[in-house]
Amino acid sequence: MEVTITVRGCDTCKRTDRPTTRYTLQSERGQAVTRDLCAEDAAPLEDVFGPLVPAEEPSPQDAVKEQLLTLMGEHEEDTRARRARAEAEVREAKSAPARKTTQAKKTTAKKTTRRRGGTPVMTLEEIEAKKAAAAKS
């Protein structure tokens, strides 16, 4: 059994993942040149010369390939967007508890510092009681 696989890529950008069209371009001197071009590389020529006529009609397989490539591109974009949203949610979930913990540590540290280094507050009666207790001993 013999199997032939033909892969046509753009002659300008050399990419094979884009659908290409075969064009025959002819100069005034009469030299014809055949090129396979993707839509992006054919666009500048169409801007200058108007709509180009393909050298051959696209096959039904080319139409299916173009549809598949479009769907695959849309799927990849959708997958990237979903992955980015999920990663953002994970980052947000991880950073939210960390912020609360950091704030709690700061608050606790401030309270502890005040208790240790602060001057004790006593009423006049407590001061007199301490003086009386010290005089008795």
What does this structure look like?
There is one protein chain. The chain is mainly alpha-helical. It has helices spanning 39-49, 60-117, 124-136, and strands at residues 20-26, 32-38. It folds into two domains: 1-56, no CATH class; 59-98. Strand 1 (20-26) and strand 2 (32-38) form a beta hairpin. The N and C termini lie far apart (115 Å).
Stretches with pLDDT under 50, minimum 5 residues = none
Separation, N- and C-terminal Cα atoms: 115 Å
Topology, number of strands:
2
Q: What can be said about the biggest beta sheet?
A: 2 strands, antiparallel
SS-derived structural category: mainly alpha
Approximate helicity band: 55-70%
How many structural domains does the protein architecture include?
A: 2
- Residue share in β-strands: 5-15%
Mean pLDDT: 77
Along the chain, the helix and strand elements come as EEHHH
Radius of gyration: 39 Å
Strand order of the largest sheet: 1-2
Number of helices, counting only DSSP H or I runs of 4 residues or more: 3
Structure characteristics:
single chain; 137 residues; mainly alpha; 2 domains; two-stranded antiparallel sheet; 3 helices
